[in-house]
Amino acid sequence: MREYPAFIRDVPATRPPVPLARPVARGERPDAARPQSVPGEPGLWVLLLGDMTVFTLFFGAFLLGRAEHPGRFAASREHLTVALGALNTIVLLTSSLCVALAVRAHRDLRPRTAARLIDGAEFSALVFVALKAVEWGGLLHDDLTPSTGAFFMFYFVITGVHLLHVIIGTGGLLVMRRTVLRPAGEGHARLIVESAASYWHMVDLLWIVIFPLLYFAAT
Amino acid sequence: MTKLRDTRRLVLVWTALVAATVLSWILGTSHGASTDAVQLGTTLALGVAFIKVRYVGLEFMELRAAHPALRWVFEGWIIAAGSALIVLYLTG
């Protein structure tokens, strides 16, 4: 059996068996009927909500910075391409849909469909990174760097830390893809699939807030 | 079929989220408008963003079916973060 980190490996051993919410239907994974107390690994939610809170503090600091230099923030924001930010929002929403559908396909014992949907999400992630590279490249080409001023410092830190989350999430999706292709019942598939999916949805929802904040609220 | 309905529901949620993104795009880029109109547009765009976050949580992350405590912590975060950012924006 493959070695997973202790927090994944030990959970089923310490968790009492959960009664089924309804009988398992034909063509479903045995664990599909279990009542869903928490999607994925419960401890992961501490990380997700903690991450979301740290980002909220970043967002608050950005708005405090704007209150100090309203003119400079408004002028700096003119250098951003709103279309790229909006397009990236749609790209991440699409990847999130693929991941949500993949979780359902996995439960319905359709591993190939699940894997294809995860491929779709991975492709969307690549498009997101490519669009980000275009935007960063354009700004850096115009000599707009984190040291240009407070606005660009916030812009590069917030989008940079978010990009790091995109990369971690993409790694999670690769693990998820391997997991859905394994024979049913092996390992702790439900935990891994739902954890990777929840992390990816968090990456999406953070960008949903970053988009109007950086691209509009600076004005 | 339940499965088909589930898929259709997710696709419908995605369509609404994309439509809301386009709406924010229009709200946020009301160039040539008065300062008040720009401020209103941006406030609405921030509000729409947090409503979108709620649906990503409830539908995609399956928090609608999750333990109520987790759902309420999530919804609490949306209300706290959303209102704090909108107040900071309007008073800034």
**Helical residue percent band of chain B:** over 70%
Overall number of strands of chain A = 0
Shape label of chain B = flat
Strand portion of chain A: under 5%
Order of helices and strands of chain B: HHH
* Main beta sheet strand tally, sense and closure of chain A: none
Q: How many DSSP H or I helices of chain A?
A: 8
Mean pLDDT of chain A: 89
Radius of gyration of chain A (CA) equals 20 Å
Q: Which runs of chain B of at least 5 residues are low in confidence (pLDDT < 50)?
A: none
Q: How far is it from the N-terminal to the C-terminal residue of chain B, by CA?
A: 51 Å
Global structural class of chain A: mainly alpha
User: What are the secondary-structure elements of chain A, in order, as H or E?
Assistant: HHHHHHHH
Count the beta strands of chain B: 0
* Shape estimate of chain A: elongated
Mean pLDDT of chain B: 91
Strand portion of chain B: under 5%
**Biggest interface: chains and residue counts?**
A-B, 46 and 47 residues
Low-pLDDT sequence parts of chain A: none
| Total DSSP helices of chain B | 3
Question: Can you tell me about this structure?
Answer:
The complex is a heterodimer of chains A (219) and B (92). Chain A has helices at residues 6-9, 11-14, 42-68, 70-77, 82-107, 111-141, 150-180, 189-215. With 219 residues, chain A is an all-alpha fold. In chain A, helix 3 (42-68) packs antiparallel against helix 7 (150-180) and helix 6 (111-141) packs antiparallel against helix 7. Chain A is elongated and about 60 Å long. Chain B is mainly α. Chain B is 84% helix and 0% strand. Chain B contains three helices and no strands. Chain B has helices at 2-28, 35-60, 68-91. Chain B is flat. Chain B starts with a helix and ends with a helix. At the A-B interface, helix 3, helix 5 and helix 8 of A face helix 1, helix 2 and helix 3 of B.
Summarize this, please?
The complex is a heterodimer of chains A (219) and B (92). Chain A has 219 residues and is an all-alpha fold. The N and C termini of chain A lie far apart (55 Å).
